[in-house]
Amino acid sequence: MNIRQITSVYFSPTGNTKTVMELIAGQLSDCPARLDLTGPGKRPEYHFLENEAVLVGVPVYGGRVPAVAAERLKKLHGRRTAAVLVVTYGNRAYEDALLELKLILIRQGFRPVAAAAVPAEHNIVRSIAQGRPDKQDRKKLKYFTRDLGRRFWELESNYRIGDLKTPGSRPFRKYHGVPLKIKAGPSCKKCGLCVQNCPVQAISRTDPKITDSERCMVCMRCVRQCPSGARRIHPVMLLAVKQKLKKVCAERKEAEFFMV
Fold first, then answer.
1. Residue 150 pLDDT
2. Does this model's pTM top 0.70?
């Protein structure tokens, strides 16, 4: 079976997952399609055929697929479509995320054929895994995509794909978010960029300085995109998080790959 179209699908608030997805998709196809599930707003249903392949990437939040990403992935519908699963994580652990992503896509009609767990710069404490994926990561991703490309061309319409084995266990790890709040300082110019791009629409449209802390997922998208640097987590709280993660994130984690 010739794969006629490769589509890269990703939820990537700070751009780290998007970077990894582009590295993979760009080596598999000269013109891959792209579907960004990050921004707010309603989306149509997306349907993929058996002669297509879909690469699906999400960041790991507390060892899980972010709830909002899991919900948006329900808009994808496969017809025994080959799927490659990708999770990025801030050099701590990805725990149940790959298994959860696999089960989501199987329910949506996809056939997982490969998976990757790739360390990337931590979205909150950017000094952790800073600059990753780095040269060493990119080299490993190149080898992975080379093997994946060969695997795609081996697939035949009547070929039965075995079960892709990924780490993780059920019941999934409980995740209740992080006890942090993002606030806008006096330098906020109310340009509205954060309002337009917040994945969960947690920022007030009438006053961007107001953030719904219950809805906010602390994805840091608004902090990264604020042109005046007005949005941030309180420095004392940020330091506490950094100290907490220092030990568990000190050792360099390496990318892991899985294939049927």
1. 85
2. yes
